[in-house]
Design a protein that fits this description.
The chain has 90 residues and is mainly alpha-helical. The chain contains three helices and no strands.
Length: 90
């Protein structure tokens, strides 16, 4: 999938998450059942996690793509950078 298509898909996913969060607010304002609220929170969290992993995947793809013509040591440094990103945000 090309970069622009990935960007549009990510924006669409985030808009859906935004809608889910607004729905959560309404549930809370209407004093809905706690389990129903928790279920919707879990769904929103899962959708946001998926968007996060897609974004992290994009970062990894870019790092690896840029490493094609590099030395083994430079490639290993890029892999280390990816590992640090995953540890920092994962």
């Amino acid at each position: 999938m090309e970069i622009e298509a990935k960007r549009k898909a990510l924006v669409s996913r985030l808009k859906r998450v935004e809608g889910q969060v607004r729905g959560l607010q309404r549930l809370l304002e209407n004093d809905e059942d706690c389990e129903k609220v928790a279920q919707q929170m879990a769904a929103a969290r899962k959708a946001l996690d998926k968007a996060f992993f897609q974004t992290l995947s994009c970062a990894m793809e870019r790092e690896l793509e840029e490493s094609r013509d590099e030395t083994l040591q430079q490639q290993q440094q890029r892999i280390q950078k990816i590992a640090e990103l995953m540890a920092k945000y994962g």
